[in-house]
Amino acid sequence: MNALGFFAAAAIGRPKQAELSYVWDQATLEAKAIILCLVVFSIIAWSVMIGKALQMRRAKRLNQFFNTEYRTQKNVLDVYDRRVQADGCPMFMVYQAGSVELDARLKNPDGSGRKRFVSLKGMEHVKRSLENTVAQESLKLESGLILLAIAVSGAPFLGLLGTVWGVMSTFGGIAQAGTASMAAMAPGVAAALITTVAGLLVAIPSMFGYNWLVHTLRVLTVELDNFAQELVSKMETEYLED
Predict the structure, then answer these.
(1) Which of 93, 196, 200, 218 has its CA 20 to 30 Å from the CA of residue 139?
(2) DSSP label at 240?
């Protein structure tokens, strides 16, 4: 029997432990601690990705509904006067902030109705209110993305730390034993490499999720900016004093 046949027969003749289970058993305490940290990172990253994806999807859908409703109105304050509410809709929050500010500038001092026009200074206050609300809504949508950025950049380095530590421990043990063989080195090196694999398993999905969420956030922010500019233009056309 040749060498290849001997090793094949030996492999068939004894039960084989599951690969990941064997590597986990060979891992050092430090490597197991790092892997557990990466598991926590993964749970947080997936929670953020799912939560932000649902939030942005809902915001996009509500923006479409509100935009359709808004464009059916003849006067810029018609939706505001009807006391329409659309919680969770960024575009509505921008419209509401601008309408509240404009309404305050149009009110007569005695509260007996609205003036026909607003001054240029008053319209500047409306613009600032819209800009502030656009920034606030963008920050709401962006909140939590820093956790994904940390997972993308930090998880591979944390896994690499575990690998380097494990390899160092393996070579240190071999040096103390005074023997160097593949059978002695392979378990320790394999156990060390598992932390790098774990780090990449956390970082790769987080990277794709982060890039998609940043792109969606950019689209929503641009839509809010465009809507705010269009809203100001319409307010100036209807209410700005010549």
Answers:
(1) 200
(2) B
Q: Do the beta carbons of residue 193 and residue 220 sit within 8 Å?
A: no
pLDDT at res. 8: 38
Per DSSP, the three-state class of 23 is helix
Structure pTM?
0.78
62: in domain: yes
Domain-embedded: residue 9 = no
Structure tokens of 203? 């970082």
Q: Average pLDDT of each block of 10 consecutive residues along the chain (242 residues)?
A: 38 51 70 87 94 94 91 88 87 93 84 80 91 94 91 90 78 66 63 83 93 94 94 90 70
Task: Select from 75, 76, 130 the least CA-distant residue to 98.
Answer: 130
The DSSP call for residue 181 is -
At residue 72, the 3 state secondary structure works out as coil
Please, what is the Cα angle at 90 between 148 and 138, to 5 degrees?
A: 40
| Vertex 230: Cα angle to 223 and 95 (nearest 5) | 75
Instruction: Return the bridge partners of 118, or none.
Output: 240
Question: For a pLDDT cut of 70, what percent of the chain falls above it?
Answer: 79
Q: Taking the CA of residue 111 as centre, how many other CA atoms within 13 Å lie in the half-sphere pointing to its CB?
A: 0
The torsion region of residue 16 among left (phi > 0), alpha (psi -120 to 50) and beta comes to: beta
pLDDT in tens, 76-115: 888 888 888 888 899 999 999 999 999 888 888 776 778 8
Give the residue among 21, 9, 10 at the shortest CA–CA distance from 187.
21
Structural domain that includes position 123: 20-239
Separation CA 152–CA 10 (nearest Å):
43
